Amino acid sequence: MTFAELSDIDFRRFSALVYEKCGIHLRHGKKELVRARLGKRLREGGFKDFKSYYRFLTQDDSGNELVKMLDAISTNLTGFFREERHFDFLQNNIFPSYVADREAGGRSRRRLWSAGCSSGEEPYSLSMCLLEYFDDSSDHDIKVLATDISATVLAQARSGVYRAARLENVSNALLRKYFHRGYGKQEGHFRVKPLLKEIVQFRRLNLMEPFVFKEGFDLILCRNVMIYFDRSTQAALVNKFYDALTDGGYLFVGHSETLTGIDHRFTYIRPSIYCKL
């Protein structure tokens, strides 16, 4: 089966739909990427062209195909301990402040959020840092919420299985402590151990939708996600993050990202690190 090329009109329609549903801004230079990724959805769904696929998407009340379409469009690039300076800041600045606050009679309960967690490397890296620093201390109740718009990558994250090549930034000591090595048919793969999974809750969440959380977060990591949004969407999201944080909570963005030029209420700490003071 062959398919017509993605016309400029169809590209603009899909771009507007993607922007409306998840805030991703698809510039014209992304047209070939959209054609290639949605072409697979056309083949799997038996649609004759992009126009009929778009019509189905906008008329499908179940929303199931919309989720699959957004999965196909979303770019998921991640890695264990990516942008390691953030993890250094956690261990040298943030975690010690939790201990000091607890010793002074403060909170033991802390909640951290990996927003745009992709296939799970970021929240599992965060969990390893927590276990290493707090050493299973019963004095601290710390959990990680990990969210993504893509149901596909969330399924990968929940499985906790990774090829050895994906773990090159994980030390041998951490590999032995937090992963099971695969043998036989699973040779070359590693599975996250239950003690690491117990800290993380994975949930599908669209960052464009209202946040409904029962409590505030002490740390939000939203790294290399906002680069796909336009400036107005970035501003709206950053201010939603501010409202979702507790006083003194931190926001980490990607090292290539900045809040410069965005109207926000955060206090700048250092490149890519901001605080709600």
What labels describe this entry?
10 helices, seven-stranded mixed beta sheet, Rossmann fold, 2 domains, globular, 277 residues, three-stranded antiparallel beta sheet, Chemotaxis Receptor Methyltransferase Cher, domain 1, alpha/beta
Helix/strand layout:
Blueprint: H1 8-22, H2 31-45, H3 50-59, H4 64-73, H5 84-103, E1 109-115, H6 121-134, E2 141-148, H7 151-159, E3 161-163, H8 172-178, E4 179-181, E5 189-192, H9 194-197, E6 200-204, E7 217-222, H10 231-244, E8 245-253, E9 267-270, E10 273-275
Parallel strand pairs: 1-2, 1-7, 2-6, 7-8
Antiparallel strand pairs: 3-5, 4-5, 8-10, 9-10
Helix pairs in contact: 2-4, 5-6
Task: Characterise this structure.
- The chain is of the alpha/beta class and 277 residues long.
- The chain has two domains: 8-73, Chemotaxis receptor methyltransferase CheR, N-terminal domain (Chemotaxis Receptor Methyltransferase Cher, domain 1, Orthogonal Bundle), CATH 1.10.155.10; 84-275, Rossmann fold, CATH 3.40.50.150.
- Helices cover 43% and strands 19% of the residues.
- It has ten helices and ten strands.
- It has helices spanning 8-22, 31-45, 50-59, 64-73, 84-103, 121-134, 151-159, 172-178, 194-197, 231-244, and strands spanning 109-115, 141-148, 161-163, 179-181, 189-192, 200-204, 217-222, 245-253, 267-270, 273-275.
- Strands 6-2-1-7-8-10-9 form a seven-stranded mixed beta sheet. A three-stranded antiparallel beta sheet has the order 3-5-4.
- Helix 2 (31-45) packs antiparallel against helix 4 (64-73).
- The protein is globular and about 65 Å long.
- 31% of the residues are buried.
- The model has no long low-confidence stretch (mean pLDDT 92).
